[in-house]
Amino acid sequence: MIRIIVGVLFLGTFLLVSYLIFPIECLIGKFNRNAKDYSSLRIVQWGFRTILKIAGTRITIIGKENIPNEAALFVGNHRSFFDILITYTQCGRLTGFIAKDSVEKVPSLRVWMRYLYCLFLNRDDPREGMKIVLKAIEHIKEGISIFVFPEGTRNKGEELSMLPFKEGTFKIATKTGCPIVPVSINNSAEIFENHFPKLKKTHVILEYGKPIYPKELSRDELKGIGAKCQAVIQETINKNAELV
């Protein structure tokens, strides 16, 4: 329980101190938007790394050389609240995450996420979902990567399983031609969800697969791009299960 108490205290302090940082970030942004974007990115990454350290999370990263040097659509499996922390600490360039709209209710966190081009999705409103996809397409065209969990929610099933991917997510790539990077995460639910409310020292495997370029696929292959990506991720999850 000590880990969870320290983690909550740190998160609360970070979110409170953020109110002192926001005016500075806004001032930086008036003179240099890019500098403000990357300073916000590094501050949030520091906060996430600290939380992961408090939780005792050790991450093994495989395939980081597969990350393209351009805006991309990252798609991954989703089993834990910590998946965003784990993946976001590895972002070398600006990357907006698509998150559920309930996260938007946390005032300070909401500001940081907006600074970092994150998008809030109402899962019950298909029309709003399409607006989010269109906004994500704009971000890709501006050179900002997008990270999404196409299962649509955290999978609470068997450890190596996945929920079906939602194909609409992949319009972000098919409409822009940006590369799709399959991302597999092993063992993240063991940090917290598998033994709530305790945090447990855990080894997580994070692997980036080879990018898939929509322009290189046939029309039939594009129709099943979500299933193709899911198959790649599933194969990698199964392969890495013995490493945790």
What are its keywords?
244 residues; alpha/beta; Glycerol-3-phosphate (1)-acyltransferase; seven-stranded mixed β-sheet; 8 helices; 45% helix
Polypeptide structure, described:
By secondary structure, the protein is an alpha/beta fold. The chain has one domain (57-243): Glycerol-3-phosphate (1)-acyltransferase. It is 45% helix and 15% strand. The protein has eight helices and seven strands. It has helices spanning 2-31, 33-55, 82-88, 107-115, 126-141, 171-174, 219-223, 225-240, and strands at 57-62, 73-76, 95-100, 119-121, 145-148, 180-186, 202-208. A seven-stranded mixed β-sheet has the order 1-7-6-2-5-3-4, with helices on both faces. Helix 4 links the parallel strand 3 (95-100) and strand 4. Helix 1 (2-31) packs antiparallel against helix 2 and helix 2 (33-55) crosses helix 3. The chain is globular, with a radius of gyration of 18 Å.
Strand order of the largest sheet: 1-7-6-2-5-3-4
Name of the CATH first level: Alpha Beta
How much of the sequence is in beta strands? 15-25%
The percent range for helix content is 40-55%
- Mind telling me the C-alpha Rg? 18 Å
Count the beta strands.
Answer: 7
Corresponding CATH superfamily: Glycerol-3-phosphate (1)-acyltransferase
Multimeric state: single chain
Structural class: alpha/beta
Number of domains: 1
CATH T-level topology? Glycerol-3-phosphate (1)-acyltransferase
